[in-house]
Design goal:
single chain, 165 residues, alpha+beta, Immunoglobulin-like, 2 domains, three-stranded antiparallel sheet, 4 helices, 20% helix, flat
């Protein structure tokens, strides 16, 4: 294409290449909708309870030490009576129900907010544990479960020497 053709017809259809997305408006619309949903749901990950349509899922940490397994669950604003912990040979299940009621009265107004929801988290156990000696403690919104390993599970651990070359 010569310089003269650009000057005489700078905006002709032949001189400008069009991208595929711009040819099909539905592809552009789909890209915008995907971006909209990704940005909308990104904000829910920063909440203390991952909330999705009234479902709570508390943050849980699992730590294996030499002698036991420790599980910590963040349950802010909950009471001990609203939490249920059950342990089996293969798993630990934490269930609960969160109930929040806020009441605010003023001279010319009255406001009442309620929030309810239940959750259940099951943590698999991949080794032998002594479920009879398991303990659970709840303090300041933090549930801590300690499950001792069996003697067999402790003895099965073998240290491997690392060689350098």
């Amino acid at each position: 294409m010569s310089f003269r053709s650009l000057i005489s017809r700078p905006f002709s259809r032949e001189s400008v290449s069009v991208r595929k997305e711009e040819e099909n408006p539905f592809l552009s619309l789909q890209r915008e909708m995907n971006s909209l949903f990704e940005n909308f749901f990104r904000d829910f990950e920063s909440l203390p309870f991952a909330q999705s349509a009234g479902v709570f899922s508390p943050k849980v940490d699992v730590l294996e030490t030499e002698r036991d397994i420790k599980i910590s669950a963040e349950l802010p604003g909950m009471d001990e009576k609203d939490i249920d912990v059950s342990i089996h040979k293969e798993s630990v299940t934490i269930k609960g129900e969160k109930k929040i009621e806020k009441e605010d009265k003023g001279k010319d107004y009255y406001r009442m907010e309620r929030s309810y929801g239940s959750f259940s988290r099951t943590i698999p156990l991949h080794l032998d544990v002594n479920i009879d000696k398991a303990e659970a403690k709840f303090s300041k919104g933090l549930l801590t479960i300690s499950i001792p390993k069996t003697d067999k599970a402790i003895k099965e651990v073998k240290k491997i020497a690392i060689k350098t070359e």
